[in-house]
Design brief:
single chain; alpha/beta; UDP-N-acetylmuramoyl-L-alanine:D-glutamate ligase; Protein-Tyrosine Phosphatase, Chain A; six-stranded mixed beta sheet; 16 helices
Length: 428
């Protein structure tokens, strides 16, 4: 095809669907000179917590003077957010130029009878080439889905392989048991690599330790018994982990403290690989780390949070956070979900907390019919309303809410990105 605008080309790539496997991305990267081999990467897989761990590590590395590239997904507002250097997204001009170059190679592959790379494969290759050409000292690299067959899994010598919390998600691609999903996630483990693991259930631990043993990889498991919660408010929380006392983070919820402990263990691995990260810069990095859309307060009166909880583990973390922070406040939810998520379990976990739930349709082809979601929510909440738009839901939520009440929007990252703009318009 002839190259068109970035937006049009990405829409075309979307139409190609998802094709787990490394053949196409390996061929594309070969044509680009295999930039991934010139990068020092921290590779992160897992069901929940990847983004938060990435944010912590990026902030700590930046505080320590390292130019740090990050490749994460999905975006909240703009696709360029997924490819950053020192938290600054790739410019529109650079994105356009790199995408144009890569599209020419994709066209050549198609003409030769090869499968055209998918959207995620193209973005993965683009990020590698961009990070190499800009001279990044280190790259924090998230898998998109799974690990073994994920497009990012073309690395041969990662600095550290990180596996965060594992839960049932993307079961149609990764398997319908925790053990099967763990096997896919552990596919990022390479021979003689260093591995940091969020502590899983025993059966998952056995899967991952087996893969580590096969690869002669060194495994470090986060010690949750060493995590000590010290206090929180709506801006920060503090905790201690092992010898590190009074660590301060702005990401809220007990699960974010556990994710921070994962980041501490990765820092210990990096120090063994001659990265100069002082305790002072570790504390500074944690205090400055930000990760939009994860129990983020975007409005103050009434309090209005957005959260990326989209699976059962995320819903459980959100439920626990709301119970801890707002045990006596009236809660109003705005929910929209994708149809391939376990919306029945998420409804059961969260809906009993709410006085009102407003249901919307996320802007995604995989969006769940809002009336289907409403029927799942109805047994647990006395007041469930299907709204015509996200803006309609915001208007209704603010109408229901007194100043002391709390509004929480969650279920899919594909709609919560709209909310800060909608609320900003209300302020003006």
């Amino acid at each position: 095809m002839t190259y068109i605008s970035s937006e049009q080309y990405l829409s075309y790539l979307d139409s190609l669907g998802s094709h787990p496997g490394l053949e196409a991305v390996t061929e594309l990267l070969k044509r680009l000179g295999n930039p991934q081999y010139d990068l020092r990467c921290i590779h992160i897989a897992g069901t929940n917590g990847k983004g938060s761990v990435s944010a912590y590590l990026t902030s700590i590395l930046m505080a320590s003077g390292y130019q740090t590239g990050t490749f994460t997904s999905p975006e909240i507002h703009d696709i360029r957010e997924t490819i950053c250097i020192d938290t600054k997204p790739i410019t529109a001009e650079d994105f356009e130029a790199y995408l144009k170059l890569i599209s020419s190679h994709c066209d050549a592959m198609e003409k030769e009878g090869l499968r055209s790379p998918t959207r995620f494969e193209v973005l993965t290759a683009l990020s590698f080439l961009y990070f190499k050409n800009t001279g990044c000292h280190v790259v924090v690299l998230e898998t998109g889905m799974g690990g073994r067959l994920d497009a990012t899994n073309v690395l041969t010598r990662p600095l550290c392989c990180v596996i965060t919390a594992i839960a049932l998600d993307h079961t149609q691609f990764l398997g319908d048991t925790l053990e099967a999903i763990a096997y896919e996630k552990s596919g990022i483990i390479k021979p003689s690599s260093s591995v940091v693991l969020y502590p899983p259930v025993n059966s998952v631990y056995e899967v991952i330790t087996k893969v580590c043993n096969q690869n002669k990889a060194t495994l470090s498991v986060v010690d949750l018994e060493a995590v000590k919660y010290l206090g929180h408010d709506l801006s920060y929380q503090t905790f201690s982990y092992k010898q590190y006392e009074l660590i301060k983070i702005s990401l809220l919820g007990d699960h974010q403290v556990k994710n921070a402990a994962v980041a501490v263990e990765v820092v210990e691995v990096l120090r063994q690989k001659d990265f100069e990260i002082s305790d002072e810069n570790l504390y500074l990095g944690f205090s400055k780390a930000a990760w939009p859309g994860r129990f983020e307060c975007i409005y103050k009166a009434p309090l209005f949070f957005i959260d990326g909880a989209h699976n059962t583990q995320g819903a459980l973390a959100l439920r626990d956070t709301l119970t801890a922070y707002f045990p006596n406040n009236k809660l109003i939810f705005i929910m929209g979900m994708l149809k391939d998520k376990d919306y029945a379990a998420i409804s059961q976990l969260t809906a009993p907390l709410a006085a009102h739930i407003l249901v919307i349709t996320p802007p995604n082809p995989r969006a769940l019919d809002p009336y289907v979601l409403a029927s799942e929510l109805a047994p647990y909440c006395p007041d469930v309303t299907v709204c015509s738009s996200t803006s309609d839901a915001v208007d209704k939520a603010l109408l229901y809410a007194a100043l002391e009440d709390v509004i929480v929007a969650f279920g899919s990252l594909y709609f919560i990105g709209e909310l800060p703009g909608l609320l900003k318009d209300l302020r003006n």
